[in-house]
């Protein structure tokens, strides 16, 4: 049986039904997970509101309580301020559509601020982990005798920077998994398309031409 150009063959109809079924399943799973995504969004929003202000508060209270490295309390204060400003700006931009920033200026501002925050956090990790001494019950003492750092201040900064490192590694692994998944889906789609096309070519070659 011959098919005109542009006419759907049984194989193509079968493939279209499979693709439609896959799209339907993906849409259903996406809808089911909307509630979970909503809770995750609110959790991230809550963390974004509380953690920066906690860092500012701890850094301000113990500003002069870390002679071992006076950059640590300042690191917490600057990180908290920049993170709070970023969170507030993105929230206002998402819900109220800022009018005092042009569309071509917002990406540059947010990108530069995020880059500064990333570099600042790396420096904070160097400062905090650089004076780490285990098994100390009365604060962190530098082995070279450079001074004392308040225990609450140090451990807050330690956990704060450790969470940053974990989030960076987790984000990197998630991006790798997503890229790998997209590549596999693309490869499978291409293979299915080539197989279907080859099957149509073999069928056309085996079909006798009627005169």
TrEMBL record:
Q: Does the keyword Transmembrane apply?
A: yes
Q: Which chain regions cross the lipid bilayer? A: 39-62, 74-95, 107-133, 153-183
InterPro entries named among the record's database cross-references: TMEM272
Question: Would the keyword Transmembrane helix be found if you checked this record's keyword annotation?
Answer: yes
The organism's superkingdom is given as: Eukaryota
Per UniProt, the keywords (alphabetical) are: Membrane, Transmembrane, Transmembrane helix
**Protein name per Swiss-Prot or TrEMBL:** Transmembrane protein 272-like isoform X2
């Amino acid at each position: 049986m011959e098919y005109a150009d542009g006419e759907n063959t049984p194989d193509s109809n079968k493939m279209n039904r499979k693709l439609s079924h896959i799209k339907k399943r993906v849409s259903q799973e996406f809808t089911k997970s909307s509630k979970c995504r909503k809770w995750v969004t609110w959790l991230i929003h809550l963390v974004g509101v509380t953690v920066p202000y906690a860092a500012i508060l701890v850094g301000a209270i113990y500003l002069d309580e870390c002679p071992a490295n006076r950059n640590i309390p300042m690191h917490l204060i600057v990180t908290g301020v920049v993170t709070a400003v970023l969170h507030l700006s993105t929230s206002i931009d998402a819900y109220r559509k800022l009018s005092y920033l042009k569309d071509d200026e917002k990406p540059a501002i947010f990108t530069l601020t995020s880059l500064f925050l990333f570099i600042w956090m790396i420096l904070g990790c160097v400062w905090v982990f650089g004076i780490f001494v285990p098994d100390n019950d009365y604060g962190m003492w530098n082995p070279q005798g450079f001074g004392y750092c308040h225990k609450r201040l140090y451990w807050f900064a330690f956990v704060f920077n450790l969470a940053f490192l974990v989030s960076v590694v987790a984000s990197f692994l998630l991006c790798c998994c997503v890229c790998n998944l997209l590549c596999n889906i693309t490869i499978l789609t291409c293979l299915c398309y080539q197989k279907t096309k080859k099957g149509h070519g073999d069928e056309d070659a085996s079909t006798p031409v009627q005169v």
